[in-house]
Structure formats: C-alpha cells, structure tokens
Amino acid sequence: MKQKIKFTVVGLALFLLLGSAKPISLFVDPNTIIINQIKIEILGNSTVGKYKCNCPHTYRDTIYLNSTTKNSLKSEIATANFDCGNRIMNKDLKTTIKVTKFPKSTVTITNIKPSGSNYTCSLNFRITDKTLSYQNLNLTNTKEALEGTVSVKFTDLGLEPPTKMGGVIKVKNEFIIHFVLYKL
Asked: Can you tell me the distance from the alpha carbon of 143 to that of 94, in angstroms, rounded to the nearest whole number?
C-alpha cells in the first residue's frame, strides 16, 4: 500500500511539473504563427509632455501564411481596460473615446504576407463608431512578436482632443497606435 501511495505521489508531482511545461516541437512550420497576446498602445503628446496608454489583451489564435482558410485574426478589446498610468488620464481617455457608449474596439488583421524577414497586412481598427483601414501595413517580425504602428488623429475618429484647465493643457490631435502580437 505504501509503495502504491509513493508511486501516486511521484506520478502526481511529475504530472504537475510536466503539465505546466510548453510542448517541445521538433518541426516548426514556417507558414504558421501562433499568437498568444495582443497589446495595443496609444502614444501621444500634450502641452505638458508625452503620454502612453496601453491595453494588454489575452488572445490566442493561429495565422496560416499562404493559406486561404485562416490568414487573419480578429479580436474585440474592452476600451475600459486602457491604462494611462494615472487615474485622471484614464478618466480623460475613457471620456474622450466614449467608453460608456462604445465599450469595445475591434482589431482585424487580414491578408498577412511575408515581406523579406517581416510581414505586410491589412488592418481595420474600429474605435467608437469609426473604422480606420490600412493596406500594406508593415509588421516588424522579432523573435517574440509582430509589431506595427499607425498614425491617427482624434479628428479622424470624429473626436476632440482632450483639454484641461481651460485649455492650458492640450492633447495634440495626432497620436500613434502601436500594436504588438506576441508569439507563442
């Protein structure tokens, strides 16, 4: 009986140890990219300096390059999850992008193609009730992620850049959306 308990404990310990390990693959398909997280960052300037708001988003999907079946990804992101580093900026961003009226943004990336050691794609980013579309957008390929940036204006979205203190503090109209697709 003691030996059976000892084997059970050893078996359970091995299961817990190996169960959390990543599987080892001897064959890596160069036409497959597995994404396990998306991070969206909004980078901009105001009259008092730079700001950065980000929204990491757990998301798993597989992209099959050179395939007609699944060469895209689409994800809804809760706009309330954007974090600018302090409570006042969080509130200003959420008010500006009308989080109560538009609680979700959608990122759709399609037509992903190799371009040298990097990739190109088409990007649709829906925020508020507007969709911004970009064709042949460059995606930088690193060991950890695919990264891209787009330049946007608040006025492109039908929004006014936030101001504070009677206009003394003004957010610039143009900002950058930097998105990172973390690979598994």
From this structure: 33
Q: Are 141 and 117 in contact (CB under 8 A)?
A: yes
| Average pLDDT along the chain | 85
Q: What is the mean pLDDT of residues 31-41?
A: 90
Residue 127 near residue 157, CB atoms below 8 Å: yes
SS (H, E, C) the chain: CHHHHHHHHHHHHHHHHHHCCCCCCCCCCCCEEEEEEEEEEEEEEECCEEEEEEEEEEEEEEEECCCCCCCEEEEEEEHHHCECCCHHHHHHHHHHCCCCCCCEEEEEEEEEEEECCEEEEEEEEEECCEEEEEEEEEEEECCCEEEEEEEEEHHHHCCCCCEEHHHCEEEEEEEEEEEEEEEC
Q: What is the pTM of this model?
A: 0.78
What's the whole-number mean pLDDT along residues 150-154?
A: 95
pLDDT in tens, 52-105: 999 988 889 988 887 777 788 999 999 999 999 989 889 988 999 999 999 999
CA distance 112 to 14: 40
Report whether 106 contacts 76 (CB < 8 A). yes
